[in-house]
Amino acid sequence: MPPFDTPATATGRISPPVAVPPDAEGDTADALTLGRRVRERRTQLGLKLEQLAAAIDRAPSQISAIENGKREPSLPVLRALAAALRCTVDELLMDEAPSERAALEIAVERAQRGAVFAALGIQPIRVSKATPDETLKAVLGLHQEVERLHRERAATPEEARRANTELRSEMRVRGNYYSELEQAAQQLLATVGYSGGPVSQQSISSIAEKLGFTLHYVGDLPHSTRSVIDRRNNRIYLGSNLPSRDARAPILRALASIVCAHEEPRSYGEFLRQRVEANYLAGAVLLPEQATIAALSEAKKQRQISMEDLRDAFGVSYEMAAHRFTNLATTHLDLEVHFMKVHESGTLVKAYENDGVRFPSDALGNLEGAMVCRNWTARTVFSQPDRFNPWYQYTDMTEGGTYWCTSRLETAKEGQYSVSVGVPFDGVRWFRGRETPHRSKSFCPDEKCCRRASDEITRKWAGASWPEAATPTSLLAALPTGTFPGVDSHEVYAFLDGYERGSRVS
Questions:
Q1: Which of 76, 230, 445, 470: disulfide with 235, CB 3.0–4.6 Å?
Q2: How far, in Å, CA of 350 to CA of 167, rounded?
Q3: b/e string for 252-268 if b means 16 or more Cβ within 10 A?
Q4: Which residues pair with 401 in a beta bridge?
Q5: Where are the beta strands (DSSP E) in 201-337?
Q6: Which strands form 348-353's sheet, in the order they lie side by side?
Q7: Is residue 396 part of a domain?
């Protein structure tokens, strides 16, 4: 990864610090580009297909297959082609298409070889020199629209939950610790001379400047967004009603897409991973690894680990402090932990564990949308009159033993949420609040624990009640459509266009 003071590119991106899965279509794309380069060079030299074939002692059909991207030449054939075409092997292997027309042909060929096109059962068109540009553009545009509709249809709650489950499994294996993002955060802080304590608003602004971006606070930020990046003009737009300290996280999440070189997500799984990376990087900058480890190590030594102390030491939200604790607890403190965010309705919104706690789930193992046992700390905290101090509680489970948990309530536009961090009984000796007398028992998933009323009261009220659920529909509804789920792209594009044309003033 290059240093962060490297000048930004036209899009403001720099090399990503995280590993990117190889593109499944990469081999096809390379063959197509190589083929077009061979054809372009042959045409420039005035060679016919038969002449080039004779020059390298191959059949014309073999050369045609190479030029059409249907066959990859071996290294000896590639060298022979380069010699016959009076160029180098490296020139033939360049990633860029040799011309705009060639790029258009490659895009159409690539689209027609994809799984979405194949599933349509439509005969692909033959791309030749005689095919007008307008025809190729029309075919490509139609294919892109079909792919968009395909992605929307695939963006179901089931797909979202599957992606969540896969990512959660990976996080558990890694102890929720990503060294690549930690390193990226350290480099960002180094560019602004961070020396300790809470990371200031000015430091965040300087990080943005180092990456080549300016910050613009506006009163008409699209309602479905927390920030908007204009990569053409290297601007980051934020809502003008944000308090300065609270603005740090949205700025960093926006910058994370630049630092990690995020492309437009092609699936919900990719969208979710990008969101996790952005949140992680923001947390790693606002709670720097070494400083946070030092604070937590001292707290562990004193047996006084506290999410409140972590929150106050770095001037962040309780939820961010709790998240950050889970990043570092296993790798640096040798503690296995769990994290929960639960809506006041009892619905599980976020969860992470590597300590063996059994989260509620459906028959397929999906956690999101499951109802949390009302005897768990994440639920009992809602009934506590004291909202100033944290709520500590031990919970005896029918499976897995006893867990201790600390929990707080936070308010959002969807209502109240509890944010909880917990450990198995053996790990509680390191935490403040371990002496709490509060204790409960959970027999879930046995419905008699907290979900099924007694036989007596059931007989009295069965058929005589008709409740309306208060759970926010956003927690259970199908995934919103579009490239960025939940974002109105028309509104965003109009917003950006207005500022670029000067019809809006920041």
A1: 230
A2: 12
A3: bbbbbbbbbbbeebeeb
A4: 397
A5: 214-218, 227-230, 235-239
A6: 348-353, 338-343, 415-424, 401-412, 391-397, 439-442
A7: no
- Owner of token pair 């990008």: 274
Q: Which two tokens stand for residue 156?
A: 């179901």
Q: How far is CA 435 from CA 404, 431, 447, 460, in A?
A: 10, 9, 30, 41
Rounded CA-CA distance 495/222 in Å is: 7
Q: Are the C-beta atoms of 463 and 195 separated by less than 8 Å?
A: no
Report the distance separating Cα 229 and Cα 222, nearest Å: 12
Residue 286 to residue 416: CA distance in whole angstroms: 24
Residue the block writes with tokens 């204009």: 230
Q: Which residue has the tokens 């960093």?
A: 252
Query: ∠ at Cα 325 (323, 331), nearest 5°?
Result: 120
Domain containing residue 44: CATH number:
1.10.260.40
Which of 188, 190, 178, 186 has the alpha carbon at shortest distance from 19? 178
E strand or H helix that includes residue 57: none
Give residues with Cβ within 8 angstroms of 501, minimum separation 6. Answer: none
- Residue 422 · residue 377 · CB < 8 Å: yes
The amino acid sitting at 321 is A
Question: Per-residue pLDDT tens for 418-447?
Answer: 999 999 999 999 999 999 999 999 988 887
The dihedral of CA 263, 264, 270, 276: what is its sign? positive
- pLDDT tens-digit series, residues 344-362: 888 888 899 999 898 988 6
> Is the torsion defined by CA of 453, 455, 456, 459 positive or negative?
positive
Domain span at 51: 26-113+124-154
pLDDT band per the 50, 70, 90 thresholds, residue 17: very low
Is residue 164 included in any domain, yes or no?
A: no
- Please count the other Cβ atoms lying within 10 Å of the Cβ belonging to residue 273: 20
Residue 142 lies in a domain: yes
For 441-494, the pLDDT digits (tens) are 998 888 778 777 777 777 776 666 665 555 444 444 444 444 555 555 555 666
Crossing angle of the two packed helices 268-286 and 248-259, in degrees rounded to 10: 120
Rounded to whole angstroms, the Cα distance separating 413 from 241 reads 15
Burial per residue of 351-378, b for 16 or more beta-carbon CB atoms within 10 angstroms, e otherwise: bbbbbebbbbbeeeebbbbbbbbbbbbb
Exposed e or buried b for every residue in 432-460, given b needs 16+ CB within 10 A? bbbebeeebebebeeeeebeeeeeeeeee
DSSP assignments along 149-165, one per residue: HHHHHH--HHHHHHHHH
Using 50, 70 and 90 to split pLDDT, how confident is the model at 150?
A: low
Residue 315 lies in a domain: no
Query: Based on the structure, what is the number of domains in the chain?
Result: 1
